[in-house]
Amino acid sequence: MKKIMQSTSILLFLCVLVLTFLVGCNVLDSNRHSIEMKSERWLYEKLPSSANVGDEITVKIRFATDLGYIFTVNDERIKQDDDVESNDYWQFSFTMPDEDVVIDFKTYDGFLPDPAYGTLIETYWMQNLDAEHVSVREYYGEYENGVLVAMIDAGDYTANEWSEKIAGYSFAYGDGNRLTVLYDGKFYTLPEAYEKEYLTKENISEIFLKYSDNHSEVYGGRTCEFSAQYIRTDGYHDGVRYPVVTVIHSVDELNAYYKANKDKYSLERRTGTISSDSTIGFLDACDKYDEEYFEDQILLMVLLEEGSGSIRHKVERVANGADGITVDIATIVPEIGTCDMAEWHILIEPEVGFAEDADDITVYIDGRDATEKITEVYHEKGYANISLTLKEGWEYDIVDEPDTKEFAVNIYPAGQKDNKLRIYFGFFGVCGTGLKQEEIKLGKYDAWMGTYDNNKVWDFISIKDTFGDYAIINEGGKKWWSEYGDEAMQILATLKVADGYVSEAGAIQAAKEKADSADEDPKVEFDSEKALWKVTLSGKNTSGDDTFIIDVHGNIVDIIE
Question: CA 205, CA 35: separation in Å to the nearest integer?
Answer without folding.
Answer: 50
